[in-house]
Amino acid sequence: MTRHVLKSVPGDRVITEAQRSDPLFIQSVARAMQVLSAFHGVDGALSLAEIAKSAGIDRSAAQRIVHTLRQLGYLRLDKDGRGFLPDIRILDHTHDYLSLNPVVRNATPVLLELRRNTQERVDLSLFDDVRVVYAARMQSKRENFFATLVGHSVPTYCSSGGRAILSKLDDDEVQDIIARSDRTPLTPRTITDPERVMSKVHEAREQGFALAREEILIGEIALGVPIMGHDGRPCGAIHIAGSLSDWHEEAFRDRFFPLAAEAALAISRF
């Protein structure tokens, strides 16, 4: 099965002139984060030259930053000693984010109950502009490795949770997100035409949920319901995903929309 991981592209993290002129902005810290961002979406260790190129810095700067991050436990040599990989200290920051995020913390017992009631995969995603990032994943027995990873992300415009989130934004903002999205199809069934995507968003706005059929994974149907933040804007979504070999679309919708809506409302109240 193809792995699809949408991440912030390191090249998009270039230091702008406005940041350079900001007296509080520390460029060396920004370059260190660019080095760590070089590992987004890769499938193996990176050489020093590959890190420098991806991070948009010269080899000498990359060497110093990589050495520092190795000393601090954020990078390590691979088993062959020829490339570098993220190290265990990065997980400390993942734990900090998840444990201190009130949506994730308050959603956990709700998601556990939802998983028990549905017996299908249940995900919590957080809204990050053109992508949604999975912050909690409660898989079914048939999931593959990447479908269980926290931090995996998918495009907002074509995922069930993403469209549910977009349904709570005004059309101008939705169109801007769609226009800035990389609309390379993930499967032959991914809807990429902006007008058709907008139609799906309007449909979700009317129904209170979004359905995506084989747009992220072939053979999968997913239902998404938005989670609202205290500011009245959507902050994330609940996804319930099942197999088309087990479910017809209408039966899936009728069975799981009420459960997902109740769970999303419970989380939004926190």
Key phrases:
270 residues, alpha+beta, Arc Repressor Mutant, subunit A, Beta-Lactamase, 2 domains, six-stranded antiparallel sheet, two-stranded antiparallel sheet, 43% helix, 18% strand, globular, disordered N terminus
Describe how the helices and strands are arranged:
Elements (H helix, E strand, L loop, with lengths): L16 H4 L6 H11 L10 H8 L3 H13 L3 E3 L6 E3 L2 H12 L1 H17 L2 E8 L2 E8 L14 E3 L4 H7 L4 H10 L13 H14 L2 E4 L6 E9 L5 E10 L5 H20 L2
Antiparallel strand pairs: 1-2, 3-4, 3-8, 4-5, 6-7, 7-8
Helix pairs in contact: 2-3, 3-4, 6-10, 8-9
Describe the structure.
43% of the residues lie in helices and 18% in strands. By secondary structure, the chain is of the alpha+beta class. It has two domains: 10-90, Orthogonal Bundle (Arc Repressor Mutant, subunit A), CATH 1.10.10.10; 101-268, Beta-Lactamase, CATH 3.30.450. A six-stranded antiparallel sheet has the order 5-4-3-8-7-6, with helices on both faces. Strand 3 (121-128) and strand 4 (131-138) form a beta hairpin. Helix 2 packs across helix 3 (48-55). The longest helix has 20 residues, at 249-268. The chain is globular, with a radius of gyration of 20 Å.
